[in-house]
């Protein structure tokens, strides 16, 4: 299953909110369709959001039929709508800036059809770059996986969260493909159960041994010596290494340190935001209360109860053993080594 697929003049989006019960696709014909799909978490995962937004930008250009001189102002509206969908995942803004830069390079092009084609090609390059980076993340990450390992992962950082292969699951896939004896504990990841619905589905599909656990079981597993390392994805990494990821990641990181278990973050360099000094500056999205009060349309809490539903938390760099990127593995001091990594070709 592909999270997104460009069909020439539309974007086919796998509606991940329906998995694993139903396999349903949205055929996005406009940038507004893409924005809605991102907001509703039909497409999710920072790299996949970035690639989808890039194609949404291209769709916005395809929707324009006026004089070429009016295209830039139209595209500002398109970019603003896409940018407001999810505030935490920096890949969204990275992809939109890249598309904006490509549009600026076209200002001397007088043919609208040519500009539209250039933007479609740039979105395709962003998607292809994600595929390439994920496979490299897998290769580098395989270096830290023992020949026999029980790996705990949180949320879904697999092919469904990217264009292909995955980040955290990319490392796990690479280890499995290299012949290592891998077993994965996937925690359910409340409130939307991405671990239960998506990670378990992906690993079963690849015939990688996986055991589903409730979120509150991770500490007990570690206490029993059943976890050798933790690998998670990321939605934004600050300049000092603080990392925003799905809510609950911080708890797992603290537990891992308490039990002496390595804790790794796997993410492309497009997830690193050097403009943000620390995790305290990362905007944290708050999702609708009904995600906590309900579970797939079934009420599980009093309708009037107050709800706090942040979608992400921030894991301080001191809990992170290493950050696995397509350029290699970065370790502390992150404020120095992340900067070196970003300037490396």
List the helices and strands and how they pair.
Elements: E1 4-6, E2 11-14, E3 25-28, H1 31-39, H2 46-62, H3 71-83, H4 90-104, H5 112-142, E4 148-153, H6 168-177, E5 181-187, H7 194-205, E6 210-213, H8 218-223, E7 229-232, E8 236-238, E9 243-246, H9 249-258, E10 263-266, E11 272-273, H10 290-293, E12 294-295, E13 298-299, E14 312-315, E15 322-325, E16 328-330, H11 334-343
Characterize the structure shown.
The protein has eleven helices and 16 strands. The radius of gyration is 20 Å and the shape is globular. By secondary structure, the chain is of the alpha/beta class. The chain has two domains: 4-135, translation initiation factor eif-2b, domain 1 (Four Helix Bundle (Hemerythrin (Met), subunit A), Up-down Bundle); 140-343, Translation initiation factor eif-2b, domain 2 (Rossmann fold, 3-Layer(aba) Sandwich). The mean pLDDT is 97.
Brief characterization of the structure:
This protein has 345 residues and is an alpha/beta fold. It has helices at 31-39, 46-62, 71-83, 90-104, 112-142, 168-177, 194-205, 218-223, 249-258, 290-293, 334-343, and strands at 4-6, 11-14, 25-28, 148-153, 181-187, 210-213, 229-232, 236-238, 243-246, 263-266, 272-273, 294-295, 298-299, 312-315, 322-325, 328-330.
